Amino acid sequence: MTTATRLVRRVQLTGGSTYIVSIPKEWAGMVGIEKGSQVVLQLEPDGSIRLRPSARRSQVQLEAEVRAGEGVSRGAVVREVLSKYLLGYKSIRVRMEKEDVELRKMLREVMVSKLIGAEVMHEDSRELVIQVLVNVEDIPVPDVIARMRDAAQGMMEDPIALLKNEREDVDLKEVAARDDIVDKLYFYGLRQLYSAVRGFAGLEDIGLSRLEEILPHAMVLKNLERISDHAAFIARTLSQMPREPPGREELAEAAEAVVAFFRWSVDAFLSRDRSAANRLLDVDAEKLREHDRELANKLLKGYDTSLLVNIRSILGSYRRIVEYSSDILEVVIDLTER
User: Fold this and answer.
1) Phi, psi dihedral angles at 304 (to 5 degrees)
2) Which Gene3D superfamilies did the record assign (predicted)?
């Protein structure tokens, strides 16, 4: 089929009351449509119609190949594999011009820490085949977001329990390592969205109902991934500080308010609660920013330089969590625009 993506067809009238439009024969063959096949017509809010086969595209077509050789860095190969995963491919074959043990090690580490359902099905000195065993409909996108919310919330709550002396068994390095869970869910969520855009899955298969919901969900996924990064940074920074750092009670109190705001923000998105989003932006976000300024003025003085740097970094991460949560609330307002 040609590379043209815009085709013009003349509308025909048959039977005196039915309009018909032909579809390109090459495209029909490519996606497996033949006489008697059923197709889905998705009516979009802008008045357009999206047409796709009712059956999912053949898995045979969802194979990709990545070549590693001279002039291609290991990082570039890893990024290419990640890209193929995000684009919805079920099988990714990495071909190497020569044996590269370090590259195979890097790819295995990425699969473990970043990719849900990716397993090595074949490996030799010149080739590695990655098979994605999970289906996009196994965890709908709204459920992915809920799980990312819960994981990130847990990453923030455990250090608070440590600051308040409520728990002594909190391993801050383990808390930071949970960022891998959120990363996995993030890439899996993006894979679902790309699969819907490319026609590998229907919107209803991934828990959405309208094409225009794809971009807002991608934005929320990214904000959650960034929030998790900051939660991991906070845990790592606290692990470098005294067991009972100065101002720990005030810091714990401020952190609890940030965690609650974060949770409410994601819940407002999942429930499409426009009024809650406006209230959180107008009232709660402003209170948190004011409290942040007061806490910074109180804590960022009178201590040695290294401790001040750590406290400033932690406050900065909580500040960014509030901003990313506010971005999620802005998405709620945009998505529910009437």
Assistant:
1) -70, 160
2) Phosphate transport system protein phou homolog 2, domain 2
Q: For residue 46, give the 3-state DSSP assignment.
A: coil
User: What confidence score (pLDDT) does residue 6 get?
Assistant: 78
DSSP state string for 192-235 = HHHHHHTTSS-GGGGT---GGGHHHHHHHHHHHHHHHHHHHHHH
Tell me how far apart the alpha carbons of residues 117 and 124 are, in angstroms, rounded to a whole number. 21
How far, in Å, CA of 114 to CA of 107, rounded?
Answer: 10
Domains defined along the chain, listed by start:
12-53 (2.10.260), 59-132 (3.30.110.10), 141-335 (1.20.58.220)
Q: What are residue 129's DSSP bridge partners? A: 93, 122
Which amino acid makes up residue 235?
A: A
Start-to-end C-alpha separation, the chain? 39
**Angle subtended at Cα 188 by Cα 187 and Cα 194, rounded to the nearest 5 degrees:** 85
The reported pTM is 0.84
Strands (E), 10-141: 12-14, 18-20, 39-43, 49-53, 63-68, 91-96, 118-123, 127-132
Q: How far is 143 from 147, CA to CA, in rounded Å?
A: 6
Q: What is the rounded distance in angstroms from the CA atom of residue 119 to the CA atom of residue 115? A: 9
Give the Cα separation of 103 and 75 in Å (integer). 9
Rg from Cα positions in the chain:
25
* Cα 263 → chain centroid: 17
Contact (Cβ atoms closer than 8 angstroms) between residue 176 and residue 235: yes
Provide φ and ψ at 115, rounded to 5°: -120, 125
Token pair 């298969």 in the structure block, residue: 205
Alpha helices in 32-140 (DSSP H): 74-86, 101-114
In percent, how much of the chain has pLDDT > 70? 95
Q: What is the pLDDT of residues 188-215, one digit of tens each?
A: 999 999 988 887 788 888 999 888 999 9
Q: Is 199 left (phi over 0), alpha (psi -120 to 50) or beta?
A: left
